[in-house]
Amino acid sequence: MKNFADSMNGLDTSPIRKAFELAATIKDPINLSIGQPHFPCPPNIINSLNEAANLGKTAYTLTGGIPELKQALSEKYKSANQINYATPERILVTSGISSALLLLFTALVNRDDECLIITPYFLMYPSMLKFHGAKLHFLPEDFTEEDVKKLNFKNLKLIIYSNPSNPTGYIFSKSQLELLVGVAEKFNSYLISDEIYELFDYDKEFISVGSFYDKAITLSGFSKTYNMTGLRLASIVAEEEVIRELTKLQQYTIVCAPSTTQYAGLEALKTDMSSYILDYKEKRDFVYHSLKDYYNIKKSKGAFYYFIPIKGNDEEFVKRAVLEKKLITVPGFIFNQTNSYIRISFASEKSNLEKGMKALQELA
Amino acid sequence: MKNFADSMNGLDTSPIRKAFELAATIKDPINLSIGQPHFPCPPNIINSLNEAANLGKTAYTLTGGIPELKQALSEKYKSANQINYATPERILVTSGISSALLLLFTALVNRDDECLIITPYFLMYPSMLKFHGAKLHFLPEDFTEEDVKKLNFKNLKLIIYSNPSNPTGYIFSKSQLELLVGVAEKFNSYLISDEIYELFDYDKEFISVGSFYDKAITLSGFSKTYNMTGLRLASIVAEEEVIRELTKLQQYTIVCAPSTTQYAGLEALKTDMSSYILDYKEKRDFVYHSLKDYYNIKKSKGAFYYFIPIKGNDEEFVKRAVLEKKLITVPGFIFNQTNSYIRISFASEKSNLEKGMKALQELA
After folding, report:
1. Contacting residues of B for A214, CB less than 8 Å apart
2. Are B240 and B298 members of one domain?
């Protein structure tokens, strides 16, 4: 056999995908592994998707996105995120957050560049940064000023985190974000804020770092908010020079986000999702009250996950949960560098969640 | 300003994009620069796209594509391309040919690997291979056995071409394809056949190299055939081990092709496009008869382009065409290493094409 590129050696099949495949083999599983909302994509968004198709919007769009969507995103970033410099020239529309990460990491990272990842993390950050040959550093999400003072780097290229966090639901305080801005400035590095879960903010604590730092690179998605994960749409706000480079790279790789999805995105931005968010807030509370006497957990503040410390090894716990309870969870080693947690999602029907809580109580 | 990755230095904004932007600034241009069909995406395909959305198919699909589409593609490759080993396990569904190239080049190419490109070429091949640090070699499309005998490489990683060719409409003979297979075998390298224009084969001369070479990597698209360029769908047939690596990489980058588009792809494969192809055959003939006494051209055999030798410099010709005739064409330097050609597309309304031919006659 001929060789693949050397960097392919470090890339494993995603263990989340493995959980997905495991769930497919079990009859009536209690699936708490899913990283997408359980509610349907709202019908007005579906209608606008179909309308775009009926109007023949099936051709390439401009590389950076249709102007109407860039304009609407500009207004959204200004009003919802207080990112007042988010003009259309500073926005790139792309094909989901994973494509945004692909463009960013490819455009920014040289082999041996240092990258700082807040931990626990979304698994794609370390996987793809390692793929690009970066040297990884980690900082726990509950870092303090003392922790930050101790940081030292030779050539820090970027800092990355998700806020609200996948997998913990953690939301950074303003003073923590200010500390990260300080690190970015001190080491002349990019600060990437992945805000795909921004609407899943149950106690109104979420702040976009871009609201007070105009060099931030802010990623926003449509996938989780409107259950459009398969339709592939996200956007990036960054300095104009960064957007220019990413757009150039998009020409040669992604080409453009799907045309009809971009029109659906226009409608999505007008859609009130608050009833769905309220439902998830209740589920967030329900999980907390169900598990707090069994596991050492804090109430999740955002996204739709709990990252639960367990006794023993995470992979063994996950296996036991499947065998004894038909319960599908995700082992925590994917998201941090320990084997001491599992991740569950509460993006689920209440009845499924009730069964899952009972199973978890019995497994504690 | 912080640095971008070193490899970004060599990447220019696509000159085709520049032609596109130029056309947008001119009132009533005669646009012969467009690389996509002028006919609409057929209504039955639009209906199946909408039906998928109405059925709520907005979530992630399996990484490698929905099983129904892989099955239908398997049958298509067997019956239309005589690729009898094209089982679903050897197929990956991805988000357009550009994403297929992204996956392939990323998964296969190490810095300093040699790559052989048949020239004239689709501009993405050399741009993205250079981006990955490859050393490029070129072989003219009308190569003979003598030319192939002279080839020598230290570590040839891959050979790539489009067949039918963008920009020339050239179609390789079986003996030429056999010569390329010989090179791939001799130097233990991958052979990548980009067949996105396969249906635009006016004299029934096109053969898939995969019909007689089971290590071929064959790329097929839906974009050009059904005017779905904005819907982002293509597929790859390759050895199972290659598909496994590409699928792994897709998990971390593209994630999956757009869900609703995959369902539309199922319908597309059932759609008879022969009337459209016949229309383009007539246009192919019309352009030939209009220009043969003015330019030294051969009749295009496929795709929907003519690559026309011009007097003087291509970029100056293109500028003059705009200023004097409002005619938009693409300079040839993008597609080969000379400044002696322009590319025109006959994917156009007849009236526009007539005006374009008159303008080109006057510019000769």
Report:
1. none
2. no
